[in-house]
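Quick note —
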Amino acid sequence: MKTLQNFQYNHVLVLGLAKSGKAAAQLLYDSGVSFLINDQKPFLENEPAQYFNNLGVKTVTGHHPVEVLEGVDLVVKNPGIPYHHNIIQEAERLNIPVVTEVELAYELIDGPLIAITGTNGKTTTTSLIYEILKEANKNPIIAGNIGQVASQVVRQQEGEQPVVMELSSFQLKATQNFKPDLSVLLNITEAHLDYHQTREDYVNSKLNMIKRQTTDDLLIYNQDDSTVNRYINEGEVKTTPFTLKGLLKEGVSYDGQWVYYNQKPLIKRKSIVLPGLHNLENVLASIAVAKAFQVSDEHIRNVLSRFIGVKHRLQFVKNKAGRSFYNDSKATNILATRKALQSFDQPIVLIAGGLDRGNEFDELFEQFEHVKHCVTYGQSAGKIAKAAQSNQFTEVSIVDDLEQATKQAFEVSDEGDIILLSPACASWDQFKSFEGRGDMFIDVVHKL
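Predicted structure written out below.
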């Protein structure tokens, strides 16, 4: 298993012992790098801290004293820890570099690195790229924000195995040398402002993925996204565009019936099983990656004709009493929910709500053409109901939690309707993650 070689830092602080922190700490330990751990959870409740403490690693738990920075020349932080955290603020004041564990993972990668980011569509695109490369016997590894910690997974990479890595803005903000051989930039809209504080910081964090790419590298980008287009010409990287708006001489495009690569028809839209135009964008991006790896049209078509998507992303759950239930719990912002709504022509009963991040919801109602009723719950329920009233949408129910919302949606629906959980909000008011939220929805649907 790979370890860090010729590592330039002498004493590292691992800040936060969630999945990424544990993986980073294990890598540092196995590599013989001096480090200590600081985590908020008290020691007696903290199994990872106990584990590393038994190995002889210094652990400071239960609080975050700035003294843990003494002698430290690198901080590896959990991506979710905000930059106004007192340790991060003090590290920056002392000019101590702050990175996430993907920076450590980058030190280990020998073969081609494919990095994917965007406000929406990252997980679907990453999974689809992985499946196509696997179909073509490229033996890929999947890692990153998709549930597999990068600095753990890439330790097993051998030779020229491609690494397919999904990356969030939280991970990318704290990178220094990270540079993929092939990057995929899907879209950039306003999101996570509670973390980034400004739109500029969010955009710049996303662009960290491509800013160090050179003429030896490739950037695959969404030509239809105005923000992406504004920034892709700043570097010297080679580019391949994709678009839903007509034929491209070079790149991947769609004319309403066929998907083309470099003007050559590749697959009919009706042969692609993923629903929705937003998913078609993900398909085009994945085809561009596949073609960069010389994957045959046959291998691409094989995967696209059977790939139904990923859990919690417009996932079909069940048909019950003539209603079709879909779990789109990963839709944690308004744009994601709007794209989900665009995927159906049938009447929709929408379940939305969750953490109140301070934003308004008027934009959500611009895509309510097929919505017949909205059931809203959680911290943001009042704001969503208020936005509905402002946009002359009167069919709204307010309930306390997701279980009530699912039952209410079923009660107000009719045969032939779509019942769609697509919250337009983060899950953290009532759940630990969007996965937990989606799993509860699935469980309630099966018990109806």
